[in-house]
Amino acid sequence: MNTTPKTPSLEDIREAHQRIQPFIHKTPILTSSAIDAMAGCQIFFKCENFQKVGAFKARGAANAVMKLSPEQLAKGVATHSSGNHAAALARAATIAGIKSYIVMPSNAPEIKKKAVRSYGGEIIECEPNLIARETTLNAVVEKTGATFIPPYDAMDVIEGQATCALEMWEESIAFDTIMAPVGGGGLLAGTALTTHYISPDTKIIAGEPEGADDAFRSFQAKKLIPMTVPKTIADGLLTSLGKINFDIILEYVDDILTVNDEEIIAAMRLVYERMKIIIEPSCAVPLAALLKNKERFAGQKVGIILSGGNVDLAKLPFK
């Protein structure tokens, strides 16, 4: 597992894109004239909610697994994740013919646990906090010899997530801004890297929930401030920002905007009503941030990565 801080080059990202082809969909870009009219700009939604396992995480997990040595493959892989990375890693491991051990907090959404099991992952439950996740994971790794594939804080994972923006740029749209949600920071770091190489004048702006705003606070302070008790409906963004990710974000991201849960739910509902597609709350965060700060994006071409669609339909936050 490559966790040394060698930042992937554009060539590395292109190679990763080739490497993971058998594991992923090339997801479509959708538009909505109704949402454009409300937002006062042109929005291009990159639909990673249609990705394998229902989220962009399929990219980073596949890339990391495909780069393991034969010795590492023999002992399998392990991670801790509240959902999408867990499913993505379980699926990539099963396709590669190896075992996966997934540490999940006991309060992770049932739909995400079901997905991990269906992809062949072995779930080990723990208390819902980062210390418990890391302690349980360390015990699993010690017992099995499995290679830890971090959910976001590793260059191989970031390199895989960077392929999402690579596909966006292949569409020949002159984006003024690209927006992504930020939790652990893998998608944001990868998006920022790819865009820096291809179109350095394009702004990269993240959306983050107010109840889990460690990336916002860290970005402002220029030093990593861990999130201790996150509380937000955006369950995919409850993790603390990764160190490797933060260094890339600090260098290549232009701004991080925060939104509250009501704004997230309103943006989520808007996508359901106008676009007729399923997104999870975390996915709605960048659109919520754009709608809250419309004047910043007036007249622009804005790419928004819809990060995932794994939502428990029995618990939709609107009627």
Automatic annotation (TrEMBL):
Classification via InterPro entries: Ser/Thr_deHydtase_PyrdxlP-BS, TrpB-like_PALP, TrpB-like_PALP_sf
GO biological process terms, semicolon-separated: D-serine biosynthetic process
Cofactor(s) required, per the database record: Mn(2+); Mg(2+); pyridoxal 5'-phosphate; Ca(2+)
Domain Tryptophan synthase beta chain-like PALP: 20-308
Gene Ontology MF terms in the entry: ATP binding; L-serine ammonia-lyase activity; magnesium ion binding; pyridoxal phosphate binding; serine racemase activity; threonine racemase activity
Keywords: Lyase, Magnesium, Pyridoxal phosphate
Similarity comment: Belongs to the serine/threonine dehydratase family.
Protein name: Serine/threonine dehydratase
Originating organism: Rhodonellum psychrophilum GCM71 = DSM 17998
